[in-house]
Amino acid sequence: MIAPLLEIKNLHVGFDIYGGSLMVLDGVNFAVGKGEKVGLVGETGCGKTTTMKSVMRILPIPPGRFTEGEIFFKERDLLRVNLKKVRGVKGKGISMIFQDPTAALNPVFTIGRQLMDVIKYSTGDDRSGDKIRDRAISALQDVAMPDPERILSNYPIQLSGGMRQRVCIAMALVTGSALLIADEPTTSLDVTIQDQVLRLLGNLVEEKRNSTILITHSLGIVREWTDRVYVMYAGSMVEAAPTKGLFSNPLHPYTQGLMKAVPKLTGEGIAEGVPGRIPNYLNPPSGCRFHPRCPHVMRICEQERPPFFDGGNTHQVACFLYKE
To answer: What is the arithmetic mean of pLDDT over 216-230?
Structure first.
């Protein structure tokens, strides 16, 4: 792998609630190289967004708390830096596109006000208002927004879902950040607009050479869009591999289950899915958290947490089936 721009080591995150403590992230290890496009996949509730919010330091604390681990960005541990300095690092280093563009944009300010504020405060741009406005128009042109000068005077409610998402992409990319996190950026869009937005985002990322993390449920998008994939289950990584290697030879039983859950274009057979459900984080299973749902469960799976084993060709899998 290329030298890591972002590296997460043994990250544990809990949430204190009335009934006890939810141990959501259980020793997450994750890395992104410079200029690399990495996919993060897994079921709803497995901890994908929590992991990325930890990187952005936007988890609500309390009830959230970091119990263990390190998050290195450009060799600086973001968990050991005070929040004021973290904001400076994020402004010029990390940007994020959120799932819901309607919630990401403030409904009482115009698109122009919000985009120009991002340019001014995130990039430290101290130029005149006219020059910042010109840069905002250029950012909207980059995301193929029609009539960008008019869009600047519009409020979010006046735009369609696809247009709002393009505005969010423009806000994320105008900062010139080295790392872009896209958290299911097409969830609220219909299929044709999803394709347009993803193609646009892919072209912009290639042009600007950003490192990118794509969080998604869609294995098809990951297969087409990324260089490398992490598969996450119940707060921990269970498999990591180059994209082609993962799809040609999925090793972990959970990854194999995800592949079987994809409907077949030929219409042959019925998608099987993964039996059972994700565990209760108040009282998670001992050992491997997937063992209650695993068709190959062994006694050691119930007693010990599996480390990553080498599957060959930089393919790693956290499963005792590959211990030897």
So the answer is: 87
Question: What would you report as the CA-atom Rg of the chain, rounded to the nearest whole angstrom?
Answer: 21
**Closest Cα to residue 275, out of 263, 251, 258?**
258
Q: What is the pTM for the complete model shown? A: 0.87
Q: What is the DSSP string of 302-319?
A: HHS----EEEETTEEE--
Q: What is the 3-state secondary structure (H, E, C) of 215-257?
A: ECCCHHHHHHHCCEEEEEECCEEEEEEEHHHHHHCCCCHHHHH
Q: How far is CA 4 from the centre of its chain?
A: 16
> Residues 73-102: pLDDT tens digits?
888 888 887 777 777 666 668 888 887 888
Rounded distance between C-alpha atoms, residue 233 and residue 42, angstroms: 6
- Alpha-carbon torsion 102, 106, 112, 117, what sign? negative
Q: Which residues contact 80 (CB under 8 A, 6 or more apart)?
A: 70
Q: Report residue 292 as tokens.
A: 């209650």
Helix, strand, or coil (residue 22): strand
Could you give the C-alpha distances from 251 to 159, 228, 256, in angstroms and in order? 44, 15, 7
Cα–Cα distances (Å) from 8 to 142, 271, 316, in that order, read 32, 34, 16
Coil, helix or strand at residue 179: strand
Type of residue found at 43: E
Q: Is the pLDDT of residue 188 over 70?
A: no
- pLDDT for residue 170 is more than 80: yes
**C-alpha dihedral (221, 225, 229, 235), degrees to nearest 10:** -50
Domain boundaries, given as residue ranges, for the chain: 4-322
Q: Is the peptide bond before 292 cis (omega within 30 degrees of 0)?
A: no
Q: How far is CA 60 from CA 43, 66, 282, in A?
A: 22, 11, 19
CATH architecture entry for 4-322:
3-Layer(aba) Sandwich (3.40)
Parallel, antiparallel or unpaired: strands 37-41 and 211-215 = parallel
DSSP 262: S
